[in-house]
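Format notes (please read before filing issues)

Several people have asked whether sequences and structure tokens are stored in separate files. They are not. Every record keeps both together, in the order shown below: the sequence lines, then the token lines. Line labels are part of the format and must not be stripped during preprocessing.
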Amino acid sequence: MSPTYFKYKNSELHYQICGQGPTLLFIQGLLWDKNLWRSQCQALSKFFQCVTVELWEHGLSGHIPDHSSCTLETLADDIWQLTRHLKLKKFAIIGFSVGGTIGVHLALTHPSSIMAMMLLNTPLSEEPAKGKQLYDDLMNNVERLGKLSNETISDIIDNCLSLKTKENHPLIPQQIRKHLESIPTSNIQGIFTLCRAVINRKSILDRIYTMDIPIQIMIGQEENPLVLKEIQKIQHKFKNAHVVIIPGSAHLSMIEQPDIVCKILMKHLNKYLFETILSDSD
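Then the structure lines:
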């Protein structure tokens, strides 16, 4: 499949479209690319049009147009402009990690265009002090070496995968290591800018509680305990959200448990997306 680009702000966002039907917009998190969603797109493109977009500095996308003004809100607007370019009137958002946070910002600004939202291991509150320190340590280490070291890559793999995955599926950590080693050094400073946008984010919990958009929240059973505890503590406050724990997975649930994640997505989409389409056609 030939690369497709949205030329915007003197740079370009890479995206890929497969399948036909109601549109699903996939947004990945930091350090990953469109291949993160391979299993989900293969399954869901039989029924939906799947649009995967790669963040600035990731995959085949270009550099961040303006480092000085990069926030999660501006990243959400960049992706919104892509949907205008593609003439998408209504679509569902499937976001992973900070990609889900970006998706929420997009939905808060343009709620009438969003039919449903699915968030996988997505932070919704501000970054805790411990998390900020981890980001700072990571950036300092990478800046000192000019690349992701073997030790840093091993730490990322340990934090992103469950013990079960590492023990029973050794090919997965090998593939992740290969991907992380392939990140161009020319993208490092841009990725740092995205990291700072993540670190400096504000909580969106008070705003998301009252959203009418149906939300499916998925959390890996071995995800960061702070994220897992937060969601379990506040799930009763959501107006229109359902929380599911993904067994045998940590942060990269869509890779560790692709079939389970696909089934959850399909159930949510069947329940809400087609109802929205039918009501719009009345």
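For reference, the curators noted about this record: The first strand starts at residue 4 and ends at 8. The two ends are 37 Å apart (CA to CA).
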